[in-house]
Amino acid sequence: MRTISYNLREHKASGELEALVHEHEVDLLCLQECDASDLPDVVGGLQMATATKENRLGLAMYYRRDRFDMVRADSFSLKKSLHDRVLTPAHERLIGVKLLDLETDHELVAGSFHAAPLTASNSLRRKQIDAAHAELLEMGTGQATLMVGDFNYPFFTQRLTEHMNDAGYDLSLSDRRTYTRYMVFRGHFDFATSRGLKIQKVETLPRGGSDHLPILVLADYLAPNDQLPTADE
């Protein structure tokens, strides 16, 4: 399964999507900082599953219709930072889609996530991540889950990794930094959390018109005899 996550920098990189989908044979495309009203229903053969309606910095997700049937889609608001309350860039910081994989007969819950900016605390972002996982788990209890996006968490990722492991999730960083625009804030901003999946690779793709680099996540479902972690483990 091949998933691209891309923060479009206020929609500036939207013209690159068609080429990205074709070049990397993408199954899922998850977007952040997009203008949902300016997105087409189909990109490179991928069908839009859902997009936020109220955000200035929107979220959207596309899926390959010859591989997946969409079961359910929803958007969610999460705990707000001061930045959110003052500038209102994003009322909804998560969209989730439940899919049936027609190739493998697995059910998959996928999320596109955009955490609060660096003006907020890591503690608040961890609460947003936990809340996002809880919403996705509600959509498909016991199913494989993949959440990708802009986590705005370039520092102290080891602590976040431990926090995710305690909650039953794997955290996967890409092979190279995904944000290098400002000297102080260089680092891995865009990554993936998962459960019930084996992440083979997270590749940072070449820079386009955004201040974030897109990432390509390669994932397989866990074998039937592999234990799916629970939040209590």
Please render the helix and strand layout as text.
Blueprint: E1 2-7, H1 17-24, E2 28-34, E3 42-43, E4 46-51, E5 58-64, E6 68-76, H2 82-87, E7 94-101, E8 107-114, H3 122-139, E9 144-150, H4 157-166, E10 170-172, E11 190-195, E12 197-204, E13 215-221
Query: Main sheet: which strands, in order across?
Result: 3-4-5-2-1-13-12
Rounded to an integer, what's the Rg over CA atoms?
Answer: 16 Å
Q: Classify the secondary structure makeup into a structural class.
A: alpha+beta
Poorly predicted sequence stretches spanning 5 or more consecutive residues: none
Shape, per Cα inertia axes? globular
Helix run count: 4
Q: Largest sheet, described in full?
A: 7 strands, mixed
Order of helices and strands: EHEEEEEHEEHEHEEEE
How far is the N terminus from the C terminus?
26 Å
Q: Please, what is the average pLDDT?
A: 89
> Considering DSSP H and I runs of 4 or more, what fraction of the residues is helical?
10-25%
What would the keywords be for this entry?
seven-stranded mixed sheet; single chain; six-stranded mixed sheet; 36% strand; 13 strands; 233 residues; globular; alpha+beta
